[in-house]
Every structure is written in structure tokens, then in C-alpha cells.
Write a structure and sequence with these properties.
Elements (H helix, E strand, L loop, with lengths): L1 E5 L5 E6 L10 H14 L38 E7 L2 E6 L26 H14 L3 H4 L13 E3 L9 H10 L3 H7 L2 E3 L11 E3 L4 E4 L5 H4 L7 E4 L5 H4 L9 E4 H9 L5
Parallel strand pairs: 1-5, 5-10, 8-9, 8-10
Antiparallel strand pairs: 1-2, 3-4, 6-7
Helix pairs in contact: 1-2
Length: about 270
Amino acid sequence: MKVQIYKTSGEKTSEIELPFQFSEPVREDLIKRAALAIRAGMRQLYGTDPEAGTRQGRPTSKRRHRYTTTYGRGWSRIRRKAMMHRGTQFQWVGAFVALAVKGRAAFPPSSDRIFAQKINKTENRKAIRSAIAATSALDFVSKKHAVTGLKTLPIVVENDFENFKKSKDVLLAFEKLGLANEIERCSEKKIRAGKGKNRGRKYVTKAGPLIVVSKACQLQSAAASLPGIEVALVKSLNAYLLAPGAQAGRLTIWTKSAIETLGKERLFA
């Protein structure tokens, strides 16, 4: 299948043949599995200090003639610490155990927990090819993006798009390509529901277009400040970039050289 190549000014130039990755059947179940595996690996481990609440207190003896014994006092056998003593008479207070003040937590989170998920290489590559094919299907892309002005997908632009240095030039190119409504959609943000808004992540933004380039370029820094827009190398594509939230059909803009690299090197085959 051939698609049109556009200039950054919105004019049509020539056509290019899409590589075999775009003809892969869309498997939403595989895309979801691969995307969630990547997202699980991004989770940061957390846990309490292993010694938290255990730095005080000692076992108390119940033997009759032991020094520091609690024999004959009818106290439970929990760890204690001495607050005062006069000779062999001690005043104790519970410590160390979960029910005591400043004691350890009963079942604290442990940093030994493994969040990462495994996925077969063949399955992961198939999921990436499937996600690439979904970017060219208007039925999938139109579910999440404002693509009323577009007639064909995917969007392929000339290689000079990779040399843009300023954010305003990137926005102007998007408007020329008929993506003004999409940029407006990405600029909206809302306050997060729940406790997360009190923990440094108050606002939620929407996932916008993904720009796929062939190599490291100035466009990566030019588009970094634009909300919702991401720039990725064609060799570094994964299911989570192509399907954020494990939902297939992200609006993707490819440069001509990125399409050529995808087919020439048979990436993700």
C-alpha cells in the first residue's frame, strides 16, 4: 500500500510504499499484554527500612533469679525496654512489637517484591508490528484522537521535519498537516481524582501524537515542551509508545527516512 508524503507546509510531494509491518493483523490482546509488561517494569520498588521499629527493646526473661526478670509480675512476654530501675526493680514499657508505640509495622511493604513481567521476544515483536498496523487504521485512531481533518493514515512527512529547532515551528507544521484540533485536545488538562493530586501529580494530561524519527535529531528537544507529544526513534519503538494505556491506535507521524529504515532493516520481524 502506498501513502502520500507531505511537506511540513502541508503540501503533497510524492508517494512511498509502506513496509510489511503495516499489513500485520491488529491483535489488541497482544498489544495490551506487551504494553502492560513494559509498564510493570517501569514501577519503582518501595518498602520500609528493614530495621524500622526494631532498634529498641529486648527479650525479657521469666526465670526466677535472673537479672532484669519480669518473674511474678503477670506481664505478657513481649519485648520491652527499661525506662527506670532501682537495683533489681525495673520499670518497663513495651517496645519492638507491632502493637507498641514506635514499634515495627505489622506487615510493611517490602522492596523485594518483583513487579516486572516477562514476555516472549517473538510475541513482543508481533505486538509491536500489530501496534504499528493499528496506527494506520482510522477506526482505531479516531477513538482517541481528533482526526476529523485527516483522510489517510499514517501521516508521512519529509525528512527536514527532523531538523526543526523551535517548538513554534513544530506547532505550525501540525496545523499545516490538519492536526490543529488534536493539538487543542492535548493542551487540555484536568485535576486528578483521588489522593494522587496531593502527591506531586495533581494534573493529568492526554496522550497526543507520536513522532517517529530515524535518528537522534533536534526535533526531540524542540517537541519536548509540547504537551502530549512524544518523539521516538524508529529502532526504539515498543508497544507502550505505540499504544499508551494499552489501547491500540495512537496517532503517529512518521518521517520518510523512518519508514525507509523500518522496511530496509526489517525491524521487529
